[in-house]
Amino acid sequence: MNCWFGPCKQCNLKHNSLLHCDNKVSNDSLQAAPREEPAVGSSQTAMLHSVAVKKRDNNSCISLTVQPVLLSTALVEVADCNNKYHTIRALLDSGSQQCFVAESLCRTLNTKMLQSTVQVTGVGHCITQSTQSCEIKLRSKVHNYKRSLKCLVLPQITAQLPSLNVNINFNIPDNVTLADPNFYSPYEIQLLIGADLFWELLNEGLIRLPTGPCLQNTKLGWIISGPVQTKSLRINQIQCNFTQTLNVQLKKFWELEEITMPINNYSKDERACENLFSSTTLRDGKGRFSVRIPLCESADSLGDTFTLAENRFRSLERKLARNPEYKKMYSAFLKEYLDLGHMTRIHTYSFPTYFLPHHGVFRESSSTTKLRVVFDASAKSTSGKSLNDIQLTGPILQNDIFSILLRFRRHRYIACADVEKMFRQVLIQPDQRNLQCILWRENPSDPLAIYQLNTVTYGTASAPYLSMRCIRQLADECNDDVISQVIKEDIYVDDLITGHDDKNMLKFICDGVFRALSSGCFTLHGDDGYHEDGRAGQPPAEHHGPWGIRIVLVLQRLLVQETEYHHTLAE
């Protein structure tokens, strides 16, 4: 049947013009590369903005006919810290409630910036975070006008303006001094002047140009703004809705909330560690664990380390001689090591023997040991291998810190403690102690002595696994499910962070955890505990020391890399 009406006036196809719509392509996997075409002219083409996307995002490509619009820009002078003025391009925006400055300009001016966290809401309720503010001294290039602006700092204000070169055949009057003589050329915007100053800048005088834009007189000069009448400008735009961040966050949320089942998805090496621990671990009369170092290859593959350890020790000895107070703490630490039976002096050794270089780490914030001696099990022997190279690290037995802190925040009453000398409460079986030898003497006039370390040593690859595996074993042996769960889920490194909504129940948990860990010779240590009403909790009577540490100290220690904390914390 023949239609009486003609084809579409837009595309010349056989449908009514009222039914015409622009070509729209929907694709689940759209990829394109950015390209830039010549500036606007007689045959005008615009930049093609393209984004490479993956299949999980929905994208559309729409052909539009867009007329370019000039935004009001001005060249202004701003002062640096030495009161030297720099010329920049500013954007005048009466739709903004604040003035904004680019972070790069602040660095150029060496401007003092203040911490000021503000959420900036833009078009489509898009939120940008500004964390700093500053004051900018501004003056006009064409009039005697000065003003100080309080600005929020952003990494970038906008893209270069205008986005394309513009035809400048506007017939601007000769007596007009433009605020931005190069308004037609794209350039970086480093300052945005908002409505708090915009209307103050306006002077009397408005000129409508015959080709579209308008000229407005201001204290900064005449600004030009408005649509540019030119031939059709065809712009291909691609809109992409990315949901990856939201998906990742939602996935993490469900992973944290789901009930974890005891699934041992261990690798071959991790299963080997578990089998070795289960089949070889011993307990002495006090309940103390005696474990074997899990090795992935024979200790015979290690070469000589005596010369390396000796050279490192002599360097350390010179450092100790220059700092008597440091030497005093270092000697006291190793004397305690010896007095507690954690190391033993030996007079002979045979191959294979691994000598651990050692040095001190000073911890001013520690409430117990200001200086700790740490041992370097990664020092290479003459064979090119170190003790850590031939060790297995074992599976991870602790929950992640984020999960622990989320549970911790739910409790009305809290208790915190750390396991005192956690690694050193676990013995290494005697036939492997030759892999943990050190050189030491208190006085340079004494002969160099050799000591064997008898316990799990921090600095060795398997130390975290061995100590936590012993803690986990005590939890498995505990008859109370609540106590067992607390030990398994609320310990991170050597810190126990737990709580409960019932005060009496929390005291019961504290007593139970203390008894369970004491059965393996692990002792809890800390300052006074705190709960909801701020009063110090009373430690159980049979405890050797008070239970818990200040909540702010725990959170500072665990979140120092993620959180800004400005209070001075007492020891």
From TrEMBL:
InterPro entries per the UniProt record, alphabetical: DNA/RNA_pol_sf, DUF1758, Peptidase_aspartic_dom_sf, Rev_trsase/Diguanyl_cyclase
DUF1758 domain span: 89-226
Gene3D superfamilies tied to this protein: 3.30.70.270, Acid Proteases, HIV Type 1 Reverse Transcriptase, subunit A, domain 1
Domain of life the protein comes from: Eukaryota
GO biological process terms held by the UniProt record: DNA biosynthetic process
The protein's name: DUF1758 domain-containing protein
